[in-house]
Amino acid sequence: MTTTRIENESRRRFLQGAAGLTLAIYLPAATAAGGSKKAAGAAGFEPNAFLRITEDNSVTVISKHLEMGQGTYTGLATIVAEELDADWSQVRIEGAPADAKRYNNLLWGPAQGTGGSTAIANSWEQLRKAGASARAMLVATAARQWKVPPAEIVVAGGVVMHKASGRKASFGQLARAAADEIPPADVKLKDPKDFKLIGKRVPRKDGADKTTGKAVFTQDIHLPGMLTAVVAHPPRFGAKVKSYDASKARAVKGVVDVVQIPSGVAVLAKDTWSARKGRDALTVEWDESAAFKLGSEQILAQYRELAKSPGAVASQTGDADKALAGAARTLEASYDVPYLAHAAMEPMNCVVQLGKDGCEVWNGEQMQTVDQMALAKLFGLPPEKVRIHMLYAGGSFGRRANKDSDYILEAAHIAKAIDGRAPVKLVWLREDDMRAGYYRPMFHHRLWAGLDDQGRLVGWRHRLVGQSILAGSPFAALVKDGIDGASVEGATNLPYAIPNRLVELHTPTNIGVPVLWWRSVGSTHTAFSTECFIDELAQAAGKDPVAWRLSMLEQHPRHAAVLKLAADRAGWDTPLPSGKAGERRGRGVAVHESFSTYVAQVAEVTVKDDGSYRVDRVVCAVDCGIAVNPDIVRAQVEGAVGFALSTVLNGGAITLTDGRVDQSNFHDYLTVRIGDMPRVEVHIVPSAANPTGIGEPGVPPLAPAVANALAAATGKRVRKLPISADLLRA
Amino acid sequence: MITLNINGKNIRADVEPDTPLLWVLRDTLQLSGTKYGCGMALCGACTVHLNGEPVRSCSTPVSAAVGKKIVTIEGVGRDRVAKAVQDAWQRLDVVQCGYCQSGQIMSAVALLEKNRKPTDADIDGAMGGNLCRCATYVRIRAAIHEAAKSLA
Questions:
Q1: Which residues of A touch B135 (CB under 8 A)?
Q2: Closest chain B residue to A667, measured at CA
Q3: How many distinct structural domains can be found in chain B?
Q4: Closest Cα in chain B to A347
Q5: Could you give the count of Cα atoms lying within 13 Å of A527 in the half-sphere of its Cβ?
Q6: CB of A316 within 8 A of CB of A492?
Q7: What residues contact A75, with CB distance under 8 A and at least 6 apart?
Q8: Are residues B89 and B142 in the same domain?
Q9: Same domain, residue pair B68 and B102
Q10: Which CATH number characterizes residue B130's domain?
Q11: Cβ atoms A500, A489 nearer than 8 A
Q12: Closest approach of chain B CAs to the CA of A220, in angstroms?
């Protein structure tokens, strides 16, 4: 066992006190006794918990992380295949079972799960060792069989060779005998200059199945005798069932049962359409005595009021109040962001089969340990009796990593209510999914800055108001001194050299809207407020937005490098070609680090006289350490640009009226369509640093870059997302 | 009992006539490559071909499909244009989560069957009803051009 420090700045802050700073990288064995073992079924061997090599010459990589679109399966398999010297065509990927002893996320301490852009970062060394260890065992097997020194054996493209004697064997031919080898105590990892797969264009492993309809998502699970459940949910958060009449629902052809569960009334039927018809035929009376009844405007008014007084101190350097009082010039601005639904294309769903001595779950499983514990508690089972099949997820963006296991427990309650008589597939219709809460929290930001007589930024006060994601969750211990790190990340670690700064937080606890992490979490709103405000200050100081930022980034070379690269490739120093008559054009920039990955973006926009606008082009520069698969890195940043643009354009908000969610489907919660999509260029900074995340970090800079571009085009600073075209009229 | 012609085969199904074609495909016939996303013809994940035209199966009652040729993602690959589209999708690694991609491909095939040299504007028009939350649109556009090139 060796011990390695994982350089992951954001996660380290997040996990301080939870997992500590030093993480043991070890290679879980295939057996409890610590050895390798013969593979069950097809003959072959399992050198460790991440790999199975069988006589049919296939190499199966066991992924402990969910594939929800980010290319995780492909990336993890690439790392193993690189050190194993496998041929990419022989590599298959299989989802790991729920077993935190072997498959914990090394950046999450003892828990198994996928999130925080950690999949590649935490697996990097572990999977390199998994591949290298298996390679060493294959070499040892060949050396033994051929009676040659192991040092004379080479491995390439899935073939083990001894040049002097001309002998060679495929992995499959050696697999059975290799199972008798003892895994080596220590292995040598490749010099990165010898990488053949890492850093190259390796095709995704899920591409073929996902273009032919063969990929299996939770929605596609069919089990013998399975019933499909559709649930009537309360119209407001916190309401409960008072009474219900199921007579009409039971009369619907195909409906088998109707049961009350803590979260509503479930109709079980032989198929989804019958269950839906049955659900719609229910009459439910709700007890709304404890329901949340405020609307978004009232919540915002409360937040604005709170922002008038100091909050809990999240971070402090120097004396911001004094610096602001003594500044030659002070500026103040406030920024607002709404609730956001994840709205993954596959609405939440889950299959639960409750047996006599355990339960089986099929799910796009993002947080195995939390869900396993929650199910074990509900069913009174030991956690290991909760078996979870991790399937592809049709998007998640954080939604399937539910801190309260909400939809999974709902499915489990239904299975329990029918005493496990049939496997249950819970299907949320789009409306259920959109109105179920667990939104990106609404936030109000208020910022003050002081410039000296040279136009230098000398004081900074940033006050945030918004609900805590972690409070009241299994991760509540991470909230320290009233500060939820997920609320202020991106604000407390603002990279600019400002001598006096203060970040404060108000965390209202009387808002009954469930909130959750949403692709890039706190940075979704902190990047918007800080990078827009910095832009306003640059303008006030009469400085170029790129040059001014760079002047304050001397201590942060990776921020500076992506900013320079994006500006350079966007042609920042050359004027933007002007638009047609009646069109105003502008260019804006933003830079932000999240999950230890650095991204800068330059956006170009065109605004018509009526205020309608489009984003024409976004130039991105990324530093995520070693890019394991540069094409997937580019794809993630392209996608992040589109995902984030949905929060800027009209209709990208969840709002409430009297506690009821106003939106229900894609006609009133608008997300980016192909015609909205800008041209996107992604430039990757070459790096020898260990890889960091890429699923999320492309999101944060987009909204501020576009807002700054719109300001450059129109002279109007819109400080509220989504950005209304009405405010940009000529 | 109704008879449907799906991917070139006649298949009998015991379903209510008002049932959306989507749920007959997915639940009754277990052709689950066609996806549910919204139920209101807003997202395009459920797109299939009805006599060669792309339709949203979530909002098409099964009775409206009787007597017509239904083609789904499971059967479309036998067609030369569809094969070119699927190949281009794989060459450019378009997919991310993949959930919407059956619908994207069905819409793209329908476009290329009618228009072998679509412009970006043609693509935006034909594909505007297909949502992708992963926002793979940059590559969808590129893959359609790529497929068009390979068919020329």
A1: 638-643, 645-646, 672, 677
A2: B42
A3: 2
A4: B37
A5: 28
A6: no
A7: A119, A120, A628, A629, A632
A8: yes
A9: no
A10: 1.10.150.120
A11: no
A12: 6
Is residue B92 located within the same domain as residue B60? no
Q: With the C-alpha atoms ordered A620, A625, A631, A633, is the resulting torsion angle positive or negative?
A: negative
DSSP annotation of B119: -
Cβ contacts below 8 Å, chain A against chain B, sum to: 176
Which H/E stretch holds residue A501?
Answer: strand A500-506
Q: What integer pLDDT is reported at residue A185 of this predicted model?
A: 87
Contact A205, A91 (CB under 8 A): yes
Distance from CA of B6 to the nearest CA of A (A): 15
Taking an 8 Å cut-off on Cβ atoms, the answer to whether B99 and A639 are in contact is no
Q: Which of B57, B75, B93 is the last residue of a domain?
A: B75
- Token pair, residue A26, equals 């070890």
Q: Please give the domain boundaries of chain A with CATH numbers for all domains.
A: 3-211 (3.30.365.10), 218-289+348-427 (3.30.365.10), 296-339+440-727 (3.30.365.10)
Let me know whether B20 and B51 are in one domain: yes
Closest chain A C-alpha to B45 CA, distance in angstroms: 8
CB contact under 8 A, B36 and A214: no
Query: Based on the domain organization, do B69 and B84 belong to the same domain?
Result: no
Q: Residue A27: its pLDDT value, please?
A: 75
Question: Strand, coil or helix: what is A385?
Answer: helix
Instruction: Provide mean pLDDT across the span B45-69.
Output: 98
- β-strand partners of A720: A336
Q: Which of B36, B43, B124, B134 should one mutate to test binding to chain A, selecting the residue with the greatest count of A CBs within 10 A?
A: B134
The reply to whether B33 touches chain A by the CB within 8 Å rule is yes
Please provide residue A69's backbone torsions phi and psi, each rounded to the nearest 5 degrees.
Answer: 125, -20
Residue A73: both structure tokens together:
């399966």
Q: Which tokens belong to A506? A: 């108000």
**Are B136 and A638 a contacting pair at CB < 8 A?**
yes
* pLDDT at residue number A44: 82
Same domain for B98 and B52, yes or no, is no
Nearest to B100 among A273, A345, A639 (CB): A345
pLDDT at residue number A29: 75
Nearest CB neighbour to A210, from listed B98, B130, B139: B98
Whether residue A203 and residue B100 make contact (CB cut-off 8 A), yes or no, is no
Q: And the tokens for A264?
A: 């509503």
- ipTM of the complex, rounded to two decimals: 0.98
* C-alpha to C-alpha distance for A75 and A629, rounded to whole angstroms: 7
Could you tell me if B9 and B50 lie in one domain?
A: yes
How many residues can be counted in chain B? 152
In whole angstroms, give the CA distance from residue A26 to residue A29: 9
* CB pair distance less than 8 Å for B98 and A212: no
Q: For residues A334 and A407, what is the distance between their CA atoms, to the nearest angstrom?
A: 36
Nearest CB to B137 within list A395, A642, A666: A642
Task: Tell me the residue range of the domain where B69 lies.
Answer: 2-75
Query: Pick from A51, A169, A53, A55: which is nearest to A102 by CA?
Result: A51
Q: Does B95 touch chain A (CB under 8 A)?
A: yes
What are the per-10-residue average pLDDT scores of chain A (730 residues)? 36 34 55 64 83 96 98 98 98 97 93 94 96 97 98 98 97 94 92 97 97 98 98 98 98 98 98 98 98 98 98 98 98 98 98 96 98 98 98 98 97 98 98 98 98 96 98 89 96 98 98 98 98 98 97 98 98 96 97 98 98 98 98 98 98 98 98 98 97 97 98 98 97
Give the per-residue pLDDT at A474: 84
Which structure tokens are listed for A340?
């956001």
- The residue length of chain A stands at 730
For A212, A328, A612, A703, A719, the CA distances from A615, given in Å and listed in that order, are: 32, 36, 11, 11, 18
Q: What is the pLDDT of residue A475?
A: 86
Q: Please state the pTM of the whole predicted model.
A: 0.95
User: Would you state the structure tokens that stand for residue A103, as one six-digit string?
Assistant: 């498959």
Based on the fold, state whether residues B48 and B16 are members of the same structural domain. Answer: yes
- The answer for residues whose C-beta is within 8 angstroms of residue A479's C-beta and 6 or more apart is A468, A470, A471, A485
